[in-house]
User: Fold this.
Amino acid sequence: MATYREEFAQWAMLSANLKPLLEELPALERYQIALEAIVAKGRALAARQQELAGELQKTITERRKLQREAGQLREYLVATLRHELGAHNGRLADLGIKPRRLPESGGTSRKRTKSQQKPAA
Assistant:
């Protein structure tokens, strides 16, 4: 199966090479003219596609820059809000910020020492 580019090259070659033969084959003139119009439109579409590809690349670059800026700003705001409201404040969740968990009661260590472990039965 031929790619579009390969098919387009075939159409362009057929149109160009058929043109000099139209005096011998006048019945094909309207078909050659139609094919020539298709080739011209294909070239215009290819040029437009190149323009759009360039615009897309610029848009992607701008979006990535925007992401970096927003990420930095969010980090600053999250740190500031945790400082101002407290890292464990439930109001942080309303802003889309996960509050820090409160330490478990009975100490800050999560691991039990050997003396705190229950003996095996």
Summary: The chain has three helices and no strands. Residues 43 and 50 are 11 Å apart (CA to CA).
